[in-house]
């Protein structure tokens, strides 16, 4: 009798238990933008205030408020010079004096407001020309047009939390605060291995009975998109020795995670199952061969090879991708150090209905319509659960995951959807 099938949720938990966040390393800010964002290993704290000094919000004249009548009457001040944007704050502003100041330039000591040039007798500054006016007439404004030191960020403010991605906007805040480096989790190295004697590498001629290895390209691209470095090995023929040698190569190259595709079901040549056979090989540990109650993607296995976590997914291309989205991505998210690795489902309404297999969670490629609703790319017919229909993936934006007890999804129903680009899983 076949053993009971486990749920997607349970298999995700097993996968997350197999991996641990990678160690932290120091990274200069420029390294953070060299590829997909790494994950902060500790809270990133502002080194300095932002802005670091009081500065002008406008091109205009720095003045002393005490010189400007509260009534709003214009007053004529002596222009003593100019503070460009990249200057020090210059000499103290004396009574009756004004100084030309450009946006972002430090306010001189003594000044407490800026009057925009277009509100003064000068009218406008001419780019490249230095000050030729000796006086300026201006009046008190409703706003000071001064950006105060620390009004954006006080030193010590947490700008990015441990477990969050150092995204473009976080990196900008860190740089503005004068931080030089942060601690981030090391980028995962993921080895991808396709198995099957029928496979030839993409671009190579095929003999009768051969097919092109599409899985290793798909899985490598998907793993790369998660912020991993990828080592693509194989395709490996259906020989336990060949697979063991390739697994050793992956572990020797420092893989943090090995993903194999194919050879995991009940076929005579199912080479992954052969290598996983309990007690056969001291380098293989923590073997967990499971049927997950989903369609497609049922046959799954987890193990360690020389201690390196190994996720074995089925070879049918859609089954392989579905397994990547549901199981490999959360594993990579945890390796990367993301605070909440798991499945980031969205809830979407369907534009049309379909049927779902009884007693199985259905995982169906769907496209997202301009309305935000989803519809299946193609409802599988004939050969099984659609695991072989690779082109349905190419036209899809995500995967709908239908609960095991639902046999009919009606138009307008709400379904869980895992978008292909979902950050955590
Ligand atoms: N007697 C049984 N047969 C099968 C079972 C079962 O329980 N009992 N499960 C079926 C299900 S469900 C799936 S899914 C597949 C999974 O099989 P494997 O993981 O062992 O995958 P393979 O047999 O190696 O390949 C399946 C299919 O996919 C093609 N393939 C494999 N690798 C690639 C690749 N890199 N690129 C493109 N296509 C690939 C392969 O040629 C096969 O057509 O098993 C069912 N059978
Ligand atoms: O589980 Mo298989 O993945 O149905 O095609």
From TrEMBL:
One annotated Gene Ontology cellular component of this protein: cytosol
Keyword Magnesium listed: yes
Family the entry assigns: Belongs to the MoeA family.
Gene Ontology MF: a single term: metal ion binding
Name this polypeptide is given: Molybdopterin molybdenumtransferase
Domain of life (superkingdom): Bacteria
Keywords recorded for this protein, A-Z: Magnesium, Metal-binding, Molybdenum, Molybdenum cofactor biosynthesis, Transferase
Organism: Antribacter soli
Cofactor requirement: Mg(2+)
GO BP: any one term: Mo-molybdopterin cofactor biosynthetic process
Claim: Metal-binding is one of the keywords in the record: yes
Function: Catalyzes the insertion of molybdate into adenylated molybdopterin with the concomitant release of AMP.
Catalytic activity: adenylyl-molybdopterin + molybdate = Mo-molybdopterin + AMP + H(+)
Xref: NCBIfam families: Glp_gephyrin (NF045515), molyb_syn (TIGR00177)
Domain MoaB/Mog, chain residue ranges per copy: 191-334
Xref: InterPro entries: MoaB/Mog-like_dom_sf, MoaB/Mog_dom, MoeA-like, MoeA_C_domain_IV, MoeA_C_domain_IV_sf, MoeA_linker/N, MoeA_linker/N_sf
Enzyme Commission (EC) number: 2.10.1.1
Pathway: Cofactor biosynthesis; molybdopterin biosynthesis
């Amino acid at each position: 009798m076949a053993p009971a099938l486990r749920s997607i949720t349970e298999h995700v938990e097993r996968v997350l238990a197999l991996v641990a966040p990678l160690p932290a390393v120091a990274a200069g800010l420029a390294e953070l933008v060299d590829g997909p964002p790494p994950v902060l290993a500790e809270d990133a704290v502002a080194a300095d205030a932002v802005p670091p000094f009081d500065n002008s919000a406008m091109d205009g004249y720095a003045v002393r408020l005490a010189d400007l009548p509260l009534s709003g009457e214009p007053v004529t001040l002596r222009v003593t010079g100019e503070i460009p944007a990249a200057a020090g704050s210059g000499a103290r502003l004396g009574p009756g004096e004004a100084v030309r100041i450009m946006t972002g330039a430090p306010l001189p000591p003594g000044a407490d407001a800026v009057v925009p040039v277009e509100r003064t007798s000068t009218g406008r500054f001419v780019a490249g020309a230095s000050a030729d006016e000796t006086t300026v007439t201006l009046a008190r404004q409703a706003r000071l047009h001064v950006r105060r030191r620390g009004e954006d960020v006080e030193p010590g403010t947490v700008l990015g939390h441990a477990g969050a991605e150092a995204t473009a906007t976080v990196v900008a805040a860190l740089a503005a605060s004068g931080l030089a480096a942060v601690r981030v989790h090391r980028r995962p190295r993921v080895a991808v291995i396709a198995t099957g004697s029928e496979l030839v590498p993409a671009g190579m001629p095929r003999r009768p009975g051969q097919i092109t290895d599409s899985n290793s390209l798909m899985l490598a691209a998907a793993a790369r998109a998660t912020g991993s470095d990828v080592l693509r090995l194989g395709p490996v023929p259906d020989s336990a020795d060949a697979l063991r040698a390739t697994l050793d190569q992956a572990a020797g190259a420092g893989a943090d995670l090995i993903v194999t595709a194919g050879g995991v079901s009940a076929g005579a040549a199912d080479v992954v199952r052969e290598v996983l056979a309990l007690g056969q090989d001291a380098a293989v540990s923590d073997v967990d061969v499971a049927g997950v109650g989903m369609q497609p993607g049922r046959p799954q296995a987890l193990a360690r090879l020389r201690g390196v976590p190994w996720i074995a997914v089925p070879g049918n291309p859609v089954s392989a991708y579905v397994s990547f989205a549901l199981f490999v991505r959360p594993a990579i998210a945890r390796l990367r150090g993301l605070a909440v690795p798991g499945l980031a489902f969205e809830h979407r309404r369907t534009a049309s209905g379909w049927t779902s297999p009884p007693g199985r969670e259905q995982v169906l490629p769907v496209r997202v319509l301009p309305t935000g609703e989803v519809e299946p790319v193609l409802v599988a017919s004939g050969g099984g659960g659609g695991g072989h229909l690779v082109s349905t993936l190419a036209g899809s934006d995500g995967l709908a995951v239908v609960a095991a007890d639902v046999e009919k999804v009606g138009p307008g129903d709400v379904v869980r959807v895992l978008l292909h680009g979902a950050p955590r899983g």
